[in-house]
Every structure is written in structure tokens, then in C-alpha cells.
Design brief:
The complex is a heterodimer. By secondary structure, chain A is an alpha+beta fold. Chain A folds into two domains: 4-47 and 248-383, no CATH class; 63-234, no CATH class. Chain A has twelve helices and twelve strands. In chain A, the strands form two sheets. In chain A, strands 1, 3, 4, 5, 6, 7, 8, 9, 11 and 12 form a ten-stranded mixed β-sheet that branches. A two-stranded antiparallel sheet of chain A has the order 2-10. In chain A, strand 7 (155-164) and strand 8 form a beta hairpin. Chain B has one domain (34-49, 76-227): 3-Layer(aba) Sandwich (Rossmann fold). In chain B, helix 3 (104-114) packs parallel to helix 5 (148-160) and helix 4 packs across helix 5. The chains are: A alpha+beta, B alpha/beta. At the A-B interface, helix 1, helix 9 and helix 12 of A face helix 2 and helix 3 of B.
Chain lengths: 385, 230
Amino acid sequence: MNNFDLILRNVTQRKVRTGLTVFGIALGIFAIMVMGGMSEYFNRHADRGLDLMSDKIYIVSESGFFGGSLEDSMVSKARHIPGVFDAYGLLYLPYDMESLGMFGAFVVGLAPDKQELTLKEIKLTQGRLLARGDSYRAVVGSNVARQYGLDVGDELEIKSKKVQRTSTITTARNFTIVGAMEFTSSDFDYMIIIPLDIAKKFYDMEDKLTYIWAIPEEGVDSEDLSRRIELGVENVKTISPQELRKQSEQMLMVMNLITISAAVLAAIIGGLSVMNTMLMSVSERTREFGLMKAMGAEVRDILLLTMGESALMGILGGIIGIAGGSIFIYFMNEYLATMGTVLFAVTYRLMAISLLFAIFLGTMSGIFPAYRAAKMRPMEAMKYG
Amino acid sequence: MDEPVLRVRNLTKTYMQGKIPVHALNDVSFDVEKGEFLSIVGPSGSGKSTLLSMIGLLDKPTSGSVFIDDKEITKAKESEVPKLRREKIGFVFQHFNLIPTLTAFENVDIAMRFARIPKNERKKRAVELLTHMGLADRMKHKPSELSGGEQQRTAIARALSNHPAIILADEPTGEVDTKTRDMIVNLLKKLSEEGHTILVVTHDTAVAQQTGRIVTMRDGKIESDKKVMS
């Protein structure tokens, strides 16, 4: 029996109640979109980062990422380990020296001939990569370009600090932008790549490196090679692609847990709101349901009518929540981009999950009230006057 | 007018009021022939409404049987009940009991939806019935926009929609003025003349006098069963 017209009529004729319920669901779905959008972005960010790093072994100082620095001599040592195709060093420093280095742009000192190995398939939206012989030149990531409004030919001021006994000497230098990278949804969006030799001079780190990246030869097991590098090069620790993936997954798990918690909370609030509305609706329409049964309505007719109403409210709430969430995320990303960062990603997967969740929420919350309506004795129709 | 469409045999209904049994119906038996217009009268608590709900499958008897068209409906399984209600019985209630959000047309249409009648047929039948009830120009109006008489005529059209074997009317004139009452009774009378079997429960002797047969109930039993000469 096609009763969609009856369902639609009931939903549209009780405007205030429908509006409030739909709003409740929409709020829940909005929360899922925003939290999920954040989670999607971090997932994508981690995936892209892992893709770009999947063929490299990170070599860091034994005392860890932030513990100390490596020396130039270690690069050639690493390069001579059997199974290493190539190894090269990088300097990695926060653009804003005052910051903690957790957020914002990074200045990366990289030898121009190692750019292709590092950037892999990342394309430039304008300009060119660094070339051998470039001095105070830079290639910037998309977020850096957006934050500072940089185009090829523009200048970007970079500062370095040297601590000398009781005073700090700050040196500033303009770097000319020669190229800008496309948006990659990875750490590369936050990079300001400058020639490694210039970076060493500018930051007064002549012999120092932050990381060494080693590329294994084809067919070589990177886990094995990582251990061999640790044995062959003194005072270093390696992070293999597998280890990097593991660490990244652990971090993502925390993010995803936060998202799931938000979703569960949204489900409880939204679900209770629909259930409350449907229970009210069923009790208001006791006579109507009893009457329908007296007219010969089957239990499934009434179940379909009431659950159809709650599912429809779920769909409406879902659509509004998805639209609202997407608009919010769009403007938040625009706003955050001016500050050099991006936090959210709206994906088809997220929209599909949100809509399915909204329908599930509406339908499930409608089950109990629908069952109550369907089981009503028709005698009640005669008693309710 | 000779084949019984309804047979009630030794119908008994006992409720428990706390620990005290209340015999709402006590060994009631009677037949109703096809096309009969019959009224059940009696004081409050005499069991007339209980009898109607047993015949209408709205409640189950303690013992005894009800046959409609030779089918013993009191033995029907729970799953068969909706179908029997749709095919055998048409209800008309005192409070009209129309769905307030639906128009007169839709109130008639909905009863046929439950019977899975195709849309075109439903539309044809609803228009035909409402026109027959003199409501051709009121079809698109909601119950709140209809008079008491118009609402009850809509309810009668709805009761007739699935061609039931019998129409059960519980105090159909209980909430209308005397002019409307006469109009409704005349309508029911006309329907019975057209071959519909109609059973009316009423307090109103003026209504009962218009029917062809009066069954008087007292204390759960049939006190008298008389044909009315018109």
C-alpha cells in the first residue's frame, strides 16, 4: 500500500512539532558532519602523507624528532649501507621561530636535485621547482601561498634567530617565490622549500640536518633496511614506512574515537527528540489508529505509516544537517585558509554516512512508538471521544 | 429477506471488576437477515454496546459464536481479523470518528486503501458514495468544515466503501440535532431498502421506531425482539 501521501501530510501538517524534531536531528547530523569532516581531513592528510613517504625511511637523531640534530656525514654513511638506493638530508624549521612548531608553516631546506624524489607526483600550480644554483628562492605549499597571498615573483620574509650568550640576534631575509604547489592535503601544503645550502647558511646550521630520508632499492625490505641503518650509522633512530603507518594510525584512532563519541551523543539527542515527538504523535492520534484498525488496517499498515513519518523526518533532518554542516565547513576552511591551515574535508563518504545515519536514527526512534500505535486495540477508538 | 447474514449464538461476555464477575452479555442468540434494518435498544449497561463490539470483532466473547455470511468470526485467528473487519463489517460511530487531517473524500478513500483497492477504483467508489450521500460538493472539505450531519454521512459512506456484509452503527444520532437525526435515519433506512444490512445501537426510541425490528436488552440478556409495523 503506497501511503507516502498520508505520511507527507502528517509530517507537513504538524509544522511546529515536525520542525523541532527535524531541527533536533539536523543538529545531530551537523555535529557529525563537522566532527566527521575534521576526521576525514586528518585521515586524508595522513593517507597522503603516508603515500608520499611510503618509499622512504625516516632517519632521526637517537634522541627523537625534537631531541637533536643529525650531521652531514651521516648522509653518506647511510647512502653506503647495502640496499639504500639514495639518502639525503633536510633541514626542517618552523617558519615562525616564536611558535612551538606544532602548527603553521615550515621552512624546509632541501637540495634542488632531491625535489623530485621528495615531491613525487605533486604538481605546481605556478612557476617552477628550485634549480641548482638558486639562492634566496622558495617554492611554497598551497596553504602558505593562500595565507600570505603569494604568487611567483613575490617576496616572503623569513627570519632566523641566533642565540648569543644573553642576547638573540634575528636575521631577516626576503626569499623570492619561484613556484607554488597544488593543494595536497598533506604536510607539503605547509612547506616553504628553500635550497638546503642556503638554509644551512641562513640558520647558521652549517653541518646540521633535521632528518635524513633514505630510499631503499627496489625489492629491499624496508623494515630490514631500517635496522641495518641503525646499526650502520651511529646515534640515529629510524622510522620505517610500516612504523610510520602504525604511529599515524594510532593518532587517527584517537581522532576517530572523538568523532564516534560525537556521533553517539548526536544519536542519543536526535533519537530521543524523534522518539518523544513520535510518542506524542501516537498518543494524540490514539483514536485515529484505533479507528484505522476498526476499518481493517493491518499492523504493518500502521507500522509503515508511523515509521515512515519518523524516517521522513530523519531524511529531512539529515539533508538540512548535511547542508548546514557543508556550508559551515566551507566557510570555516575559507577562514582557516587565511590563517594558513585547513581543518575539514567534506567527502561523499561522509555525506552518505551522515544521511544513512539520519535515516537510521529516524527509523529506529520511530520503532517503539510505531509498535505502540500498531498494537493499539480498536476499542480505544470508540472510547476516545 | 430470508437468509440470515448474521447469526449470534449463546454469546456471553464476563468482565472481572476486581474479584467480582460482571456478566455484560449472558447467553444472547438472534439472527439478522440480509437487508434488515434492526435496532438494539436498552438502558445504559444493558450490554448493547458490548454486543456490537463482539459482532464487530473489536472484542472477544467469553463464550458463544458469531457467524457472518456463515463464517464463524469469533473463531478467527488474530491475523485474519483485519481482513474480516474490512470485508464483513462497516462501522459508524457516535462521534463520527473521521480523521481530522483528511478531507471527506480521503476519509472514504483510506478505508479502501487498507483493502488494497487500486487508486482508480477507490476514487470512483468514493465519489459515487459521497454523491449518493448528497456530499458531492463537500468532498474536499475537512471534518472541521463539515456539519454534524455531513460528518456522519461521510462516516456512513466510509462504512459502505468496502461493500461490507453488515453495517454496525453505535449511537449514530447521538450527537446531532433532531432534524439531522431524521435525515440520518432516513438515509440508513434507504440503504437497507437497497439491500444493506444495518444494525443500530441507540437510546433514542424515535430512531428505533424507524427500524424494521427492535431488540431490547436488559442486564446482558435479550428482553424482547419485535418487528415494527410501518
